[in-house]
Amino acid sequence: MWGLITGVVSYFPFAWYSHRYLDDHGMPPGFSRRLLVFIVASVLSTGLGYGVSRLTSSPQHLQAESQMQKKTMQLLGSTLHCVNEPSNPQCQQNAAEAHQLLQQMLSTETGKQRQG
């Protein structure tokens, strides 16, 4: 929570400082400059927020986050593999399971809408 608050609050000083820095170095105002200020302030505030979040998190939370990142990377890797080889039987099974899950979710939603 502290990381989120720090990131949001720090965006504005980072944007102001970036704007002043580009003024001092003579970059003309315009869309490119505004985009650059936005990107620089976003990256810096995100990094600061991540650092604060990392410092204030419990070890159990960090371990759970690490496991979630590993699972996500495995999922992305298998999805990329299926994009390259869609005829693989495992990919077809995963696609069928995803389609079945989607149908379940959609039927649940339409049931809720009819009742409401």
TrEMBL record:
The keyword Transmembrane helix applies. It comes from the Bacteria. Keywords: Membrane, Transmembrane, Transmembrane helix. The chain crosses the membrane at residues 35-53. This is Uncharacterized protein. It comes from Igneacidithiobacillus copahuensis.
